[in-house]
Amino acid sequence: MAQVTLRINGYGYTIGCQDGEEAHLLAMAAEVERRLESVKAVAGPSGESRMLLMAALLLADDLHETRAALETARAAPLPPRDEARARRRIARLAATAEALADRVDPPSV
Questions:
Q1: Among 9, 27, 33, 99, which residue is least crowded by beta carbons within 10 Å?
Q2: Per the domain annotation, does 61 fall within a domain?
Q3: 43 in a domain, yes or no?
């Protein structure tokens, strides 16, 4: 089992993860840090717990919207001729998302 030290809001947190998942964990921590920075920009510095709560709520809101969009997409099946085109587009989007995820600069450990 690997261990990664994450820097979030200036604090170090050592977290265990499966071997090979270190980069993914660092990318998730970078996203939490990005959300914390956006909370600070809007609300100003606040207590640690409150800022983490706000960042968690922003992430949960994104997840909720994504799930709702997925359910809507599942409820409206594509005609067969459009399905192949959609599959190709999804594959391109997935490749783009993976490439972007690889570019995320992990926080310095």
A1: 99
A2: yes
A3: yes
Q: What pLDDT, in 10s, does the model give residues 33-82?
A: 999 999 999 888 788 899 999 999 999 999 999 999 998 888 887 677 77
pLDDT at 78: 64
Residue 99, Cβ neighbours under 10 Å: how many? 9
Q: Which residue has the higher pLDDT, 21 or 73?
A: 21
Q: Domain tally for the chain? A: 1
Assess if residue 108 is contained within a domain: no
Structural domain for 11, as ranges: 2-103
Give, in order, the Cα–Cα distances in Å from 101 to each of 14, 40, 48, 86, 104: 22, 24, 27, 22, 5
**Element spanning 15, H or E:** strand 11-17
Return the biggest CA–CA distance within the chain.
54
Residue 109 lies in a domain: no
Give the separation between CA 6 and CA 14, rounded to whole angstroms: 6
